[in-house]
Design brief:
474 residues, TIM Barrel, Urease, subunit C, domain 1, eight-stranded mixed sheet, globular, binds zinc ion
Length: 474
């Protein structure tokens, strides 16, 4: 690329990461598009395993409506009981001050206040001594997380699931690897695979990698969704990125986006749209996209940021149309994954802006998130892990930025658990501590509602009902 990172392009660098596989796959993909296979019935090993378990009588008899402890004061001998701690369940409900959780065969059997029961001496009991139990964190927007070693490192920080929103097809099968070659467990990996985009559009144009899946008409749009679902995509990602003002990139047509969304929705699969420019937000919203990734803003270049600052227009009240679009999103349950950490890292690296201009630009994106939250919009946590300037491990920086947009600590926890599960379409199974759900949870030392940084002090990690980490102090 001869146009090295100039001021305009820097604005479109949130995904500035080198791809491990640079070989284009479009010919292979296009061949598959022309002959779509049968419609898939399930989309990941995870779902299949879950369905198999649900079919087993022992599990299905333990429905949410018949909590075992209320009807029978005993628990299975191979259950795990965590007791004597605060419970934050991830849904935003008030915490339970002195609670316990019972886990059996991957599932949560009981969540609630302490109860007495008859147990066999074999039951494992962990007294967490006043610490806090909460769902494992879900990072709903990552990249480069196909490697189980990377996901193992994330799991050991308390991130029990991630969703990778842009990778090559060759990377996709690796998300079904639940263990490292050393047999260490990895964070559960959901994935989109390549992003659907217009031929010559983002991200292929910008990165020259194989994270893109070109779609040039409605027929190809439908076939591409079937193709991706049959390859195991858990969500569908589309890119709506017009790129630089002077030399714009092609974007998908509204009819193509509509077909993508309608096809994915036939299978209850969510569609996430990369939208960083307000100019293309309506294409996503009128087509019924479920999740907006990043923060759509009215400026398209550094020059426009400077111009709007000069005109005193870098605040939301100057953009009533944008307010209407966010209101539409809130009213229609379109989730926002603001990826604040990556957005702000890009603004901080834009050396064409003065420090004051950078700060005013950051204040503007925070104002947008604050507004969306105030009007009842659902915000899910995803920090664009894998991008330049984004911390690895537990996404604490993203949490702190959400706090600075006036979310409460409880709102932030919900964003990183239940709402993140909603954003990837797995909130019926993950993201909250509720009876019948998969047992992914962490215990943290202290009260994260008093200080969010407590979420970094993980003392116990449980994934799929298995204890994968326990501090020697507990
Ligand atoms: Zn991304």
């Amino acid at each position: 690329m001869t146009k090295i990172f100039n001021a305009t392009l820097i604005l479109f660098m949130a995904l500035l990461v080198s791809c491990a596989y640079s070989k284009p796959v479009n010919q292979e993909i296009l061949a598959a598009v022309k002959t779509p296979g049968p419609k898939p019935t399930s989309f990941s090993e995870f779902s299949r395993e879950r369905n198999r378990l649900l079919e087993e009588e022992a599990i299905s008899s333990l429905s949410k409506k018949t909590p075992i402890l209320l009807s029978d004061a005993s628990i299975p001998s191979d259950a795990l009981l965590i007791t004597n701690g605060i419970i934050i369940d991830g849904t935003g409900k008030a915490p339970i001050p002195n609670g316990m959780i019972i886990i059996w065969q991957k599932q949560i059997l009981y969540v609630g206040p302490l109860k007495t029961f008859t147990n066999s001496p074999d039951v494992d009991i962990i007294d967490i001594e006043g610490n806090t139990m909460m769902p494992g964190i879900i990072n709903a927007h990552t990249h480069h997380t196909y490697d189980p070693v990377t996901r193992h490192n994330l799991l050991m920080e308390g991130v029990t699931s991630i969703c990778d929103l842009g990778c090559s097809m060759r990377c996709m099968p690796h998300f079904d690897e639940h263990y490292t070659p050393q047999n260490q467990p990895a964070a559960r990996g959901f994935k989109a695979g390549p992003m659907l985009t217009a031929p010559g559009g983002y991200p292929g144009t910008f990165y020259g990698n194989s994270w893109h899946y070109d779609v040039s008409n409605v027929t190809e749009a439908e076939a591409a969704v079937y193709d991706l679902l049959s390859r195991g995509s858990d969500v569908i990602k589309i890119a709506l990125e017009p790129g630089p003002l002077q030399d714009p990139w092609p974007v998908l047509k509204p009819s193509e986006v509509k077909k993508i969304v309608d096809t994915a929705h036939l299978y209850n699969v969510k569609v996430c749209a990369h939208v960083r420019q307000a100019a293309v937000l309506d294409i996503a919203l009128t087509s019924g996209v479920d999740v907006i990734e990043h923060i759509p803003v009215p400026y398209r270049s550094v020059d426009e940021i400077k111009q709007y600052l000069k005109e005193d227009k870098l605040h939301l009240s100057a953009w009533p149309q944008l307010q209407n679009q966010f209101r539409y999103m809130a009213d229609h349950n379109v989730i926002l994954v603001p990826t604040l950490e990556a957005n702000i890292a890009v603004l901080n690296q834009t050396c064409q802006l003065t420090e004051s201009e950078q700060q005013q630009s950051i204040d503007f994106v925070l104002e947008i998130v604050r507004y969306f939250h105030e009007i009842g919009g659902v915000i899910a946590l995803g920090n664009d892990f894998g991008s330049v300037g984004v911390e690895r491990g537990m996404p604490i920086k993203e949490m702190e930025l959400l706090l600075s947009a006036d979310l409460t600590p409880m709102d932030v926890i919900r964003a990183g658990t239940y709402s993140a599960a909603q954003a990837i379409g797995y909130d019926d199974q993950l993201g909250s501590l509720e009876e019948g759900k998969i047992a992914d949870l962490i215990v943290v030392d202290g009260d994260p509602l008093a200080d969010i940084i407590t979420i970094k002090k993980v003392t116990i990690i449980i994934q799929d009902g298995q204890l994968v980490y326990r501090s020697s102090e507990l």
